[in-house]
Specification:
single chain; 154 residues; alpha+beta; two-stranded antiparallel sheet; 6 helices; 2 strands; elongated
């Protein structure tokens, strides 16, 4: 058993000689710490608290080691505005004006036409409005599929 212990200790010293010299060597690492944070561009916060406003906000920032830039914008939702205006007009009893407001959107314009109730045209409603729209297709919303097809056929 004693021979085994001696063998293990000899093998340990042979395989790990640095343990024997550990107390004799000393390594010092030196570094300088500068107490200065890098510059940071902060994107502005754009707060729209009123839920009755048809706007949304976006902001962004970018920073390099030398130059930083931050900006923010608000974007108006025109369809939201159109719906609110039409709802207000309808609430004041101006039903034809409310429908005319919605008819500025090509989707509503086409839906009204396909339902057989054409959008009002300069005060005309019903069959008179239909006749006026057919005589003046250029006045229809630009994205209207109804009048786009009629123009390509004629």
């Amino acid at each position: 058993m004693r021979a085994f212990k001696l063998f293990v200790m000899t093998a340990f010293v042979a395989l790990f000689p640095s343990i024997l010299y550990a107390a004799d060597t000393n390594t010092t690492v030196s570094s300088t710490v500068v107490d200065k944070a890098p510059p940071t561009a902060s994107a502005p916060s754009i707060v729209i608290n009123n839920s009755d406003v048809c706007k949304s906000a976006a902001s962004a920032a970018i920073q390099t080691q030398i130059l930083g830039f931050a900006s923010g914008i608000t974007v108006t939702d025109e369809n939201c505005e159109r719906l609110k205006l039409a709802r207000s007009m309808y609430g004041m009893g101006m039903k034809v004006a409310a429908v005319s407001m919605l008819c500025q959107d090509a989707r509503a314009f086409d839906a009204m036409w396909m339902a057989g109730t054409p959008c009002p045209y300069k005060g005309a409603i019903g069959d008179d409005a239909k006749k006026s729209w057919e005589e003046n297709p250029e006045d229809a919303p630009a994205d209207s599929k109804v009048f786009k097809k009629k123009e390509s056929q004629g």
